[in-house]
Amino acid sequence: MDCFRRLRLWFRWSVAVVFVSLCFLTGLPDASAGDADPAYRSCVEKCEISGCVGDNCFQHCEFSLDGLPVDGPWYMQEPLYLKWKQWDCHSDCRYHCMLAREEERQKLGGQPIKYHGKWPFFRVYGIQEPVSVAFSVLNLAMHFHGWISFFILVYYKLPLRENRTTYYEYTGLWHIYSILAMNSCFWSVVFHSRDVEWTEKLDYSSTAALVGYSLILAVLRTLNVRDEAARVMGAAPIFSFVATHILYLNFYDLSYGWNTKVCITMAVAQLLIWAIWASITCHPSRWKLRAVVVVRLLSILLKVYDFPPYLGYIDAHAIWHATTIPVTYLWWSFVRNDAEFRTSLLVKKVK
Q1: What confidence tens digit (pLDDT) does each residue in 244-298 have?
Q2: Sign of dihedral through CA atoms 136, 139, 143, 149?
């Protein structure tokens, strides 16, 4: 009876949090108020002609009669650390006009607004969102550390079968997870460094792939699916949906709002699965799983309740990236404990 009571409690709590989060997903905006600001539009148009915003002038906005930049292509004029960022005349005009317009709005008592889907951040050495980049790098390091420690554990510290394979049935699945997680963190670093179409596509696609695979992994592990054919059948519907979603983003509509709704829905689904399993299992490390579920469910609110960047650097998304760092460490700790737990059970059966 205790198990069923805990199950009902966790299920009700999880559904309540999920319901509150999903109720606001429809409010995720796809457009930005700053884009429609006449003063901002006028500033960008003038900048592309004059090459200046106030006292700031850009050499790569100076064009010759044939339409080519003076003194060669813009990427030959920029410092080395800026060349790979592709800050051309148009993007520099947008950035400095945004800052100028936000300064005017601040003097009039106005609140910051989004421009082209993003808050007005201050660049650092050509990096658009330096705090999110830093946290993404740390999360990448946490995933790498977690995967390496897991690899060493299952292949060098735990007993192996006679054919040198691991007793733990989910080793290969966690290897795939680690690759997708590190890939997602890498493209998050690139995207937050410089937001252009190709970095946006790669960031959205890699995130969707990771969240979709995490849902598959949650289903297979909690249901203890060990047969390869059953795994393929269980994963096929989710895999097909995620593949279709990624194709939709890349070749039809690269929509931030739609991608966020899809990823949050899949993330909530897998967290509910883990929460229910953590409530009824006798796994020795179930408390770690419960802690991960609670923090991740609460962090979803940062995806919904967005706010302008503090001092021009730290916004809700940056804080969300910060929460992933300790959660990632705890998550990989649970994975290692799960490998030890399952291996010990299987070794006892063999003996």
Answers
A1: 999 999 998 888 888 988 999 999 999 999 999 999 888 999 999 999 999 998 8
A2: positive
Asked which of 107, 138, 170 is the last residue of a domain, the reply is 107
Burial per residue of 170-197, b for 16 or more beta-carbon CB atoms within 10 angstroms, e otherwise: bbebbeebbebbbbbbbbbbbbbbbbee
| pTM of the predicted structure, to 2 decimals | 0.82
Identify which of 333, 299, 294, 324 has the alpha carbon closest to the alpha carbon of residue 134. 324
By residue range, what is the domain housing residue 53? Answer: 33-107
Quick check: 216 and 174 in contact, CB under 8 A? no
For residues 161 and 62, membership in a common domain is answered with no
Give the model confidence (pLDDT) of 284-322 as tens digits.
999 999 999 999 988 888 877 778 888 888 888 899 999
- How far apart CA 150 and CA 136 sit, in angstroms, is 21
Same domain, 103 and 152: no
Q: Cα separations (Å) of 166 from 218, 237, 328?
A: 20, 28, 23
As for how many domains the chain has, the answer is 2
